Amino acid sequence: MVSPNEETLIYGTKVSTVFPGTLSGQDINQEPTNMDLAMKLHYLRGIYYFNSQAMRGLTTMDIKEPMFTWFNHFYTTSGRLRLAESGRPYIKCNDCGVRFIEAHCTKTLEEWLEIKDEEALEKLLVPHHVIGPELALSPLCVFAGQTHTENLGLGLLTMFSCGGVSVGLSWAHILGDAFSAADFMKGWGHAMAAQQPAQPFKPAQTNTKPKTSPSPPTPTHDPLSTKQVGQVGDHWVYPNSCKMEAFSFNLTAPQITHLQSKLCGPLGTKQIPVFETICAIIWKLIAQTRNGPEPKVVTICKNDSGPRKNGILGNGQVIKTVEAGFSILEVQPKELVELLINRAVDDRPKIEDAVERDNGLSDLVVYGANLTFVDLEGADLYGLEFNGQKPTYVGYKVDGVGEEGLVLVLPGPKDEGKNGNGRKVVTLIMPENQVAELKSELKREFSIA
Amino acid sequence: MPPPMPKFSNSVKLKYVKLGYQYLVNHFLTLALVPVIITLLIQVIRLGPDEILTLWYSLRFDFLQILGSSFFVILLVTMFFMSRPRPVFLVDYVCYKPPASFRVPFSTFMEHSRIILSHEPKSVDFQMRILERSGLGEETCLPPAIHYIPPTPTMESSRGEAEMVIFSAIELLVNQTGIKPKDIDILIVNCSLFSPTPSLSAMVINKYKMRSNIRSFNLSGMGCSAGVIAIDLARDLLQVHPNSNALVVSTEIITPNNYQGKERSMLLPNCLFRMGAAAILLSNRRSDRCRAKYRLLHVVRTHRGADDKAYRCVYEEEDPEGKVGISLSKDLMAIAGEALKSNITTIGPLVLPASEQVLFLLSLIGRKIFNPKWKPYIPDFKQAFDHFCIHAGGRAVIDELQKSLLLSPEHVEASRMTLHRFGNTSSSSLWYEMSYIEAKGRMRKGDRVWQIAFGSGFKCNSAVWLCNRSVQTPTNGPWVDCIDRYPMHVPEVVKI
Question: N or C, which end of chain B has less CB nearby within 10 Å?
Answer without folding.
Answer: N
